[in-house]
Specification:
Layout lengths: L2 H13 L5 H9 L4 E3 L33 H12 L7 E5 L21 H10 L2 E5 L19 H25 L3 E5 L4 E2 L7 H16 L7 E6 L10 E2 L3 H11 L2 E5 L13 H7 L3 E5 L15 H12 L6 E5 L8 H20 L3 H10 L2 H10 L5 H11 L8 H11 L6
Parallel strand pairs: 1-2, 2-3, 4-6, 6-8, 8-9, 9-10
Antiparallel strand pairs: 5-7
Helix pairs in contact: 1-13, 2-10, 3-10, 5-6, 9-10, 11-12
């Protein structure tokens, strides 16, 4: 039987529970995942002045064929997008500016340095998101940026973030969909600090200056991202979850939660409903931490499904900006994009095909036996047949057949790179 026949059989299983499968598919088609460009080149970027990674970020592996030019990176992204159902977005960092061989400092980058990205996105009819790059730079070498005690260094990074917000606004105007410009900083201390408050005061003041510059929210949306610890900031991180949650709520900014930026036993899925009670917007970076913020490729695991369920159960598909953030240089980088993004979409489809309203009623009645039984039984319902149909409907390969296309691309394109 083909995907359509399998779909019709599977659909009946779900319709027995009153689940509108066609509506679920329609909802999924309206979801745009923000796919991070930096998986494709191991976060090297295209700055003329090459710099080592810093900020507690590490990429391991040396799989051949990584992108070395903007054209190669865009071609690789385009290949990945052709294997992922739906219409999605691409997320850029400031270090992916194209400056025609000129060394341009980060506080001097301009929208024009991203014109090629915008032209490419227009051709594909996709949106772009953006991030200031506050690492891999001599002015971040001591692990402090927006919270630095040296005002000159703080001001440099403030100017950088302001320019990045302007670039995000440019994306939104040109592409007709608002960019999410997200600020993450590495600031923190390796060992126990003697003063936790002062760096946070400086960070707050820096953010206030950055956001004092008027940028039209019709085109650019600001978010701030926390972290529990990093390499070199094990004891203290200035931009903690509590800091940024409070800042976002009191300044009408978006709080961004990265699934790798918390304690390994702490679940981001458990935070979503609380934030949505107090804010109508939230952003996520979906990653996979293995014992620490290792940024492994996202897999179809319990926490990914639980995150998707929390978004769907709370009618938040239009409130949550969902992005990916992982980087693995030990495997084919295009495959990494495809695996992670397809898994995230699978999780959302899985959540859309659950009898969520009925399960809520069971909980309200205190019928925890039926609740647990049904939640477990639905794990083996034939949602894979619905997924294959969704892929076929979107003209992308079903099952693992996409891997054949990646292997052909690897042989014909990636293997010829130095």
């Amino acid at each position: 039987m083909g995907a359509r026949e399998n779909y019709e059989i599977a659909r009946k299983s779900y319709e027995n529970w009153g689940i509108d499968v066609e509506k679920a598919i329609e909802q999924l088609e309206n979801v745009s995942i923000s796919i991070h460009c930096w998986q494709g080149d191991d976060i090297e970027g295209f700055e003329v002045t090459k710099r080592e990674l810093s900020g507690g970020i590490d990429v391991t592996g040396n799989y051949p064929g990584k992108a070395g030019t903007p054209e190669e990176l865009r071609a690789d992204l385009e290949k990945a997008l052709s294997l992922i159902p739906g219409k999605h977005r691409v997320n850029l960092h400031a270090i992916y500016a194209e400056t025609d061989g000129e060394a341009v400092e980060r506080d001097q980058i301009e929208p024009g340095h991203f014109k090629n990205w915008v032209d490419w996105a227009k051709r594909l009819e996709i949106g772009l998101d953006f991030n200031p790059t506050l690492f891999a730079h001599e002015k971040a070498s001591d692990g402090l940026t927006l919270a630095h005690p040296d005002k000159e260094i703080r001001d440099f990074w403030i100017r950088h973030c302001i320019q990045c917000r302007r670039i995000g606004e440019y994306f939104g105007k040109e592409l007709g969909t608002p960019a999410l410009t997200n600020i993450w900083i590495p600031d923190g201390y390796k060992d126990i600090p003697s003063d936790r408050l002062t760096p946070r005061k400086r960070l707050k003041e820096s953010l206030d200056q950055i956001f004092a510059v008027n940028i039209d929210e019709k085109y650019n949306i600001d978010s701030v991202e926390s972290k529990l610890f990093g390499i070199g900031s094990e004891a203290y991180v200035v931009g903690s979850h509590e800091f940024y949650l409070a800042y976002a709520l009191t300044n009408d900014k978006v709080c961004l939660l990265d699934t790798g930026h918390f304690h390994p036993t702490e679940a981001v899925s458990n935070k979503i409903s609380s934030i949505l009670l107090f804010s109508d917007k939230l952003a996520l970076h979906i990653s996979r931490p293995v014992r620490w913020d290792s940024d492994h490729v996202v897999i179809f695991d319990d926490e990914l499904r639980e995150i998707a369920l929390e978004i769907v159960r709370n009618d938040a598909l239009t409130k949550v900006r969902i992005g990916l953030d992982f980087f693995d240089a030990s495997i084919n980088r295009i495959a990494a994009w495809v695996i992670g993004t397809r898994n995230l979409l699978k999780a959302l489809l899985y959540a859309l095909l659950m009898p969520n309203k009925y399960l809520k009623k069971l909980q309200e009645k205190g019928n925890f036996t039926d609740r647990l039984a049904l939640m477990e039984e639905f794990k083996t319902y034939p949602f894979g047949a619905i997924w294959d149909y969704y892929c076929e409907k979107n003209h992308v390969p079903t099952g693992e057949s996409w891997l054949d296309e990646v292997k052909i691309y690897e042989k014909e394109v990636l293997s010829k790179r130095n």
